Amino acid sequence: MVEPFATGDDQLNSKSVSSDRFRLVLLYVLQLTSVGASIAAVVLIWYYMGWEFGLPALLITLVAVFIASGWWRWWHIAFVTAPRDIKALTRYIKLLGLVRKHAKNNATIGDIFAEFVSKQPEKACLIFEGRSWTFREVNDYSNRLANVFHSHGYKHGDVVGLLQENRPEFVATWLGLSKLGVIVPLINHNLRKNALMHSVTVANCNALIYGEALADAVAEIADTLPSAVALYQVNEVAQKPVLANAKDLTTLLQSASKELPVNGVTKPNHHDKLIYIYTSGTTGLPKAAVITHSRYIFIAAAISLVAGFRADDTFYTPLPLYHTAGGMMSIGQALLFGATVVTRKKFSASQFFADCQKYNCTIAQYIGEMCRYILATPVSPTDKAHKVRLIFGNGLRPQIWPQFVERFNIPRVAEFYGATEGNANIVNIDNTVGAIGFVSRIIPAVYPISIIRADPATGYSEPLRGKDGLCQLCKPNEPGLFIGKIIPNNPSRAFLGYVDKGATEKKIVRDIFRKGDAAFLSGDLLVADERGSLFFKDRTGDTYRWKGENVSTSEVEAEVSNACGYRDTVVYGVEVPNLEGRAGMAAILDPERQVDLEQLARTLKDTLPSYARPQFVRLLSKVDMTGTFKLKKLDLQEQGFDPSGIEDSVYYLTTKGQYELLTPEIYEQIKRGEVRL
Predict the structure, then answer these.
(1) Can you tell me where the transmembrane regions are (predicted)?
(2) What are the residue ranges spanned by the domains of the chain?
C-alpha cells in the first residue's frame, strides 16, 4: 500500500505492480463504502434527533474517516518535522543567496579572502601547534609564492601538485597558486610509489611541491616521473640541500615580493578549477575530483550556514588538509568567513579536548574513528573544561553517540554526509542521535535526493529497476542506494566529476524516475525513517571505509597479488565489533602454502598507506569462481574473519607490522578490544 506521505514517484512505482494496484483500488472502494455509510448515519441522526445530536455525530464521523484514511499519519509527521524543515529551508535559502551573490561578483577564493585581510589583518587566521598566523601573514606568504611561480612561467590552467603534511604553508601555497589560475592537486601524503606516481600523472601535473619530510617518498618516484614535471622542495629553513633536479622553494620565497602579482597574470574566474581532491572509489587508484572556486564556496558555505557556524567561532580540526572535510569545510571558515582555525600535524586522542581548551575553540571537527579513540582515553579534567558548543563531522556511530556527548558535554552534534565530488550532501540539524541528515516529508522536491532500491546481485552497487526500466524508491526503513539529482546549472545540484571522464560517467545513473533524467550515485546504502531522518547503513560494491579513509579493493588486490607472485586475490571489508567502518581482509589462493607472509607485510608497508593494508589475510585452499571468472567476494565477506568457522588459515596484522596466526583466543580478544588493529 502506498504510504500517506509518499511522493508521486512512490505512487508511480507502486502502480507499476499489478498486485499493488489491485490492493489500492480495493482499499479505496472500502473507504468509499465506509464513508457513504457514515454520511447516511449522520443524516438520519440529524433528521430525527436534531442538530444538537447531528453536529457531534458529524464531527465524530469526520475524525473517524480522517483516521481510517491514513491521512492523520501524514499530518502528524508534518506537524512533528515542520520546525526542522522550516529551519533548514530558511538556511538553505540564505545559502543560495550567498552563493548567487559571489557568482554575480565573479568572486574567487582569493577575492573573498582579500576582503578579510583588509578588514582584520592582525586577527589569527590559522593556529598551528602554538604558532599563530594572522590573515596578513597568510596573504603575504601566498603572494610570495604566487610571485615565484609567476616568474618561473606558470600561468592560468597549469597544474602544480602539492604534497605536504598539515601546516599553515599548505593552505597558503594552494591559495597563492590559485591567484595565478593554477590548479593544485592536493595529494595524500601517505601515498607511496605506484599510488603516489599515479596521483601526480593522472592530474597531468606540470610541477610538484613537496615538503622536506616527504623527500624520500618523492625520491622513490623521481626517476619515473615525466621529465616535464618540475620539483620544488620546501625545507624548514633556507639554504638546505634538496633532491637532485629540485628547486629550493624556501630560499626562493625569501626574496619574492609579498605584493599580489598583476602584470601578465590572467585573473581566474568564479567557475575556474581551483584544486583537485583525490577520492578512492570503486574503480581503483585515487581519482582526482574537480573542485572549482564556486564548488569550494558552496561546500564551505553550506556547512557553515546549515549547521549554524558563526564568524566569531574558533574551529579545531586535526584532520588531513588534503581532504574535503579538513581542507574545505574547516579551512573554508577562515578563508570565506574570517574565522580562526586551529590545526595540528597529526590527530591525538589525548590532546583533542586539551587543545580545544588551550585555544578556546568553540567548534571541533571529527570523524567517527576519532571519536572512539577519544572516548577510550582516561577521564581528564579537560573533558568538560572547554568551550566547544558544537562538533561536526561524519561517522559518529549511534552506539557511542550518547556516551560521547555526555562525557564531553557537547550541546550539539552536526553529523553530515557527503562526497567530495557529489551533490547528495546532507546535515543533521536537529540532534537526532545517529542521523546523518534528513529528507523533508512535506516538501521533498526542494532538495531532490532519494533512496532507491539496489540489486543484491551486484553487491547493492547498482539500482534495481522495474519493468518500465526506471528505478524504484525505497519505503521508510528500507535500505537503498542514496542518489542526488543532477541539475547542471544549479550549484547545489551540479556534478563536476573527476579529471578522468570515464570515472565521472561511472558515478552517474540515468533514467531514474523518468527517461532522460540523471543522478549522482553515492555508492552508499542509507535508510530513511518515517520522519525522513537518514541513517548510514554501509558502503557498496568494491569500496570500504577504514581509519576514516575510503579504501579501493581493486587497488589493494593488485598490490597484494603482485607481492604474492600474481596469485588470485580478492580483498573486501569485514566488520569488527566496536570499530567504525570495515577492516580490510585479503583472501589469497595458496593451496601449497607458498606465500611468504613476512615478505608480504614488508612489501605492503612500502606500497600501501597504513589504512589500506589488509588487517587480515586468509590463505585459500580452493576458490569458487563466477561465470565470468571472478572470485565470489560476497561469500567470503559473509564468512568474516572468525577462524572457528573457516577451514582456511587466517592471519592478522599485529601492531609490529607482521602477520601472525589468528587463533580463536586472539579472535575473542579482538572482539573485546584487547588486541588493537
Answers:
(1) 25-49, 55-74
(2) 19-69, 106-346, 543-672
Q: What is the fold, at CATH topology level, of the domain defined by 106-346? A: Rossmann fold (3.40.50)
pLDDT tens-digit series, residues 561-617: 889 887 888 899 999 998 888 899 999 999 989 999 999 999 999 889 999 999 999
Alpha-carbon separation of residue 663 from 180, 237, 593, 653, 657 (angstroms): 58, 51, 18, 13, 18
| pTM beyond cutoff 0.85 | no
Alpha helices in 457-542 (DSSP H): 501-506
Who wins on pLDDT, 47 or 269?
269
Burial 271-292, CB ≥16 within 10 A → b, else e:
ebbbbbbbbbbbbbbbbbbbbb
First to last CA, the chain: 47
Strands 230-234 and 207-211, how do they pair?
parallel
Q: Which residues pair with 518 in a beta bridge?
A: 510
CATH superfamily of 543-672: ANL, C-terminal domain (3.30.300.30)
Residue 386 C-alpha from the chain's centroid: 27
Question: Letter for the amino acid at 302?
Answer: A
Q: DSSP letters of 523-553?
A: EEEEEE-TT-EEEEEEE-TTEEEETTEEEEH
Closest CA to 542 of 552, 527, 532, 556: 552
**Could you tell me the CA-to-CA distances from 522 to 339, 367, 540, 576 in Å, in that order?**
31, 19, 9, 24
Contact present, 512 and 485 (Cβ < 8 Å): yes
pLDDT digits (tens, 9 = 90+) for 279-333: 854 345 788 999 999 999 999 999 999 999 999 999 999 999 999 999 999 999 9
Tell me the β-bridge partners of 161: 208
Distance CA(599)–CA(610), nearest Å, equals 16
Mean pLDDT of the chain: 87
The whole-angstrom separation of Cα 119 and Cα 544 is 45
